[in-house]
Amino acid sequence: MTMSVKALGAILTRTLWTKGHKTPPLARSPKVNRLSTTCSVSAAGAGREKGCEEKCKVGSSDRPSGEVPSSTEPAHRCTTGDKKRPTGPKEAAGAPGVVTGVKRRSHTSTAVPANPTSYLWARYNETKRLVHDVIPPGACNLLNSSTIYANNEVDLAEVDIYGFDYDYTLALYSNALHSMIYNKARDFLIEHFKYPEAIRKYDYIPNFAVRGLHYDIQKGLLMKIDAFHYIEPGTVYRGLSPVPDEEVLQLNGGTYHVPLQEDSGFYGKGPKVKQFMDIFSIPEMTLLAATNDFFITSGIEYDPVHLFKDVSEAVGMVHLKGYMYKWVMKDLDKLIQRGEETAAVLHRLVSHGKKLFLITNSPFSFVDKGMTHMVGKEWRDFFDVVIVQADKPHFFTDCIKPFRRLDGNGDLQWEKINSLDKGQIYKQGNLFDFLRLSGWRGSRVLYFGDHLYSDLADLMLRHGWRTAAIVPELEQETQVVSTKRYALSLTWLQALTGLMERLQTHRDPASKMVFEEWHNEREELMVMTKNLFNPQFGSLFRTCHNPTYFSRRLCRFSDIYMASLSCLLNYDLSYTFYPRRTPLQHEAPLWMDQLCTGCMKTPFLEEMSQIR
């Protein structure tokens, strides 16, 4: 039976704890035979990982029991450019790292180890062998980016009405749009706000930032915060340069914690800290970093608060002045992706008698052009209600603005709206009138959107709608998680952490030196696993062991989440999504659903592949 990486980690943890009194094989040098912690592999370069993996495997000889490792022995650090290491003594089959012909010794369960250092390294070596042995072949290929993941149980048979946002939900955009937004906002910053012309030399940096980051407006710091309001060390940037952890602590009063009153508010816009939750905000974060970097490296004094407001307004002008809309409408084939899959989803829902509605902040002319490109000229026939320029999130919270109807030319009409009719286009309005006029309430409604605050939060918390988050980043993240290097590194990181927790009662000076090495290796492993996703900020979803602030909001405001709307094509419309019961910290990791894999949760994956 195939197992998920998470299940393997649970099995490994249980095995380590049950073997606590069994003496392991002979000790190995702490300076060699480690999983490399300096091999840098990005998602784009995952194909180069195989050669580096071979150089990072267990392969050195054990020391005789009781021998103290040499403090002068150089540590191996594998990089993609390392030459092949000479082979050591021949190893016995099935026991990597054990020298043939060497007799093993054992201790009784009550005896104090004669040499604590040798005992600790012996446990280390046994654990490392177990890490390699416990991962079965093919374990790295279990996840699939077309899976829909559940935070809460959702039965699609109970859903009669499907609602959608437009941008990054019905329409997915190419990353080329990010550089276009960045360049135009940079021009506004120079020409409209009179910033120095030299800023124009800063080109857009793809993959510099990730969604969900926080920005300290007064200090000019871009950072990643976890679900417990703690800054992740190594992920704080001033301009384009990382801020040392010591300076972060100094700036933050000796702690990594960000107090609630200083953190971003409910919609990610606090008085001192802003959270960037919109995919469109990625160019804005990059421009903030580049502009800060210019002033810092040029030695020009500036106010970070003014800079933040100017950059935000410059990026806003790109949208308000319609530049983004013009770019997309001019080059639909290049900038809109996977439109045929959106059409397939809408056809399928309507053919099963489902009612559909659209609520978007975008103008009608822009939506009409994109939907015609993806679905066809009769796209409005799929929707029972179409609302444009809705002004979310205020659409969901205010009850002031009334609905207004647009005619065929997009001009506003003046009559009072007493019903929401199919085939008509409505502007503005509010959710309270929408509920009154449509009668669509509660868990019968499933609404899809990409913005956790503007699209989903109020619908779930105030109105009891079912919500589905579109997270395009899942596709790249699952590619990284599916690599062998990530599986080995993560499993060893978990195993090493468990080993340190189990054996931390050894506090003699020699043992403390061993633990210092283990601590350093653990730190290196955490950095390496972070860099596999993004060298600056790591994964969108994790800060090492803890979920990110973004993940916390994702779990709170969405019942289900997926990489794109097309993931619906993998499931029939009576499918029930069940959240995995993962053990809490005080529970034993015995749940059978840990053996479920991502590919097992996509029953119609083969049919989906034909659409692509």
Automatic annotation (TrEMBL):
It comes from Perca fluviatilis. InterPro entries: HAD-like_sf (IPR036412), HAD-SF_hydro_IG_5-nucl (IPR008380), HAD_sf (IPR023214). Keywords: Hydrolase, Magnesium, Metal-binding. Pfam families: 5_nucleotid (PF05761). The keyword Magnesium applies. Residues 74-85 have a biased composition (Basic and acidic residues). Belongs to the 5'(3')-deoxyribonucleotidase family. Residues 55-96 are annotated as: Disordered. It comes from the Eukaryota. GO terms for molecular function: 5'-nucleotidase activity; metal ion binding. The keyword Cell division does not apply. This is 5'-nucleotidase domain-containing protein 2. The lineage of its organism: Eukaryota, Metazoa, Chordata, Craniata, Vertebrata. NCBIfam families: HAD-IG-Ncltidse (TIGR02244).
